[in-house]
Amino acid sequence: MKNIKSSEISFEKKIVLLRLDLNVPLQNGKITDTSRIDKIIPTLNFLIQKKAQIIIISHVGRPKGKMVAELSLEPICKNLSEKINNNINLIKSNPKKINKKELFSNSDSNIAMLENIRFYKEEEKDETMFAQSIANLGDIYINDAFSCSHRKHASVFSITKFLPSFAGLQLSLELEALEKITKKIEKPITCIIGGSKISTKINIINNLIPKFDNMIIVGGMANNILKYKKHPIGKSINEDGCDHIIEQIFHHSKKQNCKIIYPSDVCVGKNLEGSATIKNLDEVLDDDLILDIGPKTIKNIQDIIDKSKTILWNGPAGYFENTNFSKGSLEIAKKIAKKNELNEIFSVAGGGDTVASLNNFGLTNNFNFVSTAGGAFLEFLEGKELPGIKALNYYV
Question: How far apart are CA 187 and CA 311, in angstroms?
């Protein structure tokens, strides 16, 4: 992508095709979390100020190329319209049948939204003719949906063959934040990584080990390391046949001088709804579930954060949905937030459960960047090239 200043682009009376990720959770036609909508409002306000005519392209859910009434963008269109205090016309016609000249001619608004783009099977198949039909509706294409950019879909990838294509404001911010933890790094740099399966994160871990000073492994993933180290883990979540993966992590980290940190004490319960008991590693019983890290581990992680200049957090430390097992994640979040407040650290958090935990704690705004992307965030950390970003001509 070439760098270009937004002031060099003329948006006035140009039709901008704006690819967003408005894939928010819906329950009985109501939005239960507006985070993804709130995040793109600056982009919309910018284009409105530049007097552009805007066609929003997005999806919600997985309709698999069929019209599914429950997955209409109608409630999202209404919510967004209220938030920006501007009418948005939802267009339910197939993009291939829309007349560009009539889009805004009889409208009281300069903003339109196409119905769920995944209602059309050609979208996920990345059909060139479908991409061209969408492109024919506009003059400029902007991708501001980082979380969809790992998908080779028509409205993300092939559409860029037919229009000048730009990275949006939010996508550019996301790339800038991720480059600070993968390329333009200020050391010491620490990664806190969790999740239930170590096998799904091995590519991320291997890609980051040469760049990071500390790799802190928590959550269900850590149980595999404890088991490998011959510590009892009771009936805690773990994966079979992962010893070779753990050997690979320790061998790679030693070679690259990256320290691997895992729990030195834990919080256990008898079930997910139960109370927490702090235990040393050799005290875990056969009917115990490890559901959080213990106070010694928390203190160790806080000390590492204190010495770090950059931090990446992907995956909570425990079963934060039960407050009895949220202390590890909460104390990590509070420590990073405090360092952030003092401008002593650059912090990036990402992954659905991590974002959910930060929202629960009310600390989302205390990080430099919080990514709502899922697969795209993880694939970027694995070092993969994202097709939706590779296809763009410019970023602003």
Answer: 9
The number of distinct structural domains making up the chain is 2
Q: Contact 132/160 with Cβ under 8 angstroms? A: no
From residue 127, give the alpha-carbon distance in Å to each of 117, 120, 124, 159: 13, 10, 8, 10
Among 167, 186, 206, the domain boundary falls at 167
Condensed to tens digits (0 to 9), the pLDDT of residues 107-151 reads 778 999 999 999 999 999 999 999 999 999 999 999 999 999 999
| Model confidence pLDDT, tens digit, residues 39-56 | 999 999 999 999 999 999
Residue 303: Cβ within 10 Å count: 11
**pLDDT 10s digits, 70-118:** 999 999 999 999 999 999 999 999 999 998 888 887 777 899 999 999 9
Among 119, 139, 167, which residue terminates a domain?
167
pTM of the predicted structure, to 2 decimals: 0.88
- Residue at 395 is within a domain: no
* C-alpha closest to that of 341 among 366, 370, 307: 366
CATH number, position 244? 3.40.50.1260
Does 299 score more than 80 pLDDT?
A: yes
What amino acid is encoded at 184 in this protein?
K
Strand duo 394-395 + 2-3: pairing:
parallel
Average pLDDT over residues 295-312: 98
In a domain, 221, yes or no: yes
The reply to whether 186 and 315 lie within a common domain is yes
SS3 content of the chain, % helix, strand, coil (to 5): 40, 20, 40
Coil, strand or helix: which one is 175? helix
Separation CA 265–CA 263 (nearest Å)? 5
Q: Are 145 and 230 found together in one domain?
A: no
Phi-psi region of 152 (alpha: psi -120 to 50; beta: other; left: phi over 0): beta
163 and 189 fall within a common domain = no
Same domain as 188, residue 162: no
Q: What is the mean pLDDT of the chain?
A: 94
| pLDDT at residue 211 is higher than 60 | yes
Domain residue limits at 47: 2-167
How many angstroms separate the CA atoms of 183 and 164, rounded? 27
* Closest to 353 (Cα-Cα) out of 197, 148, 206, 234: 197
8: in domain: yes
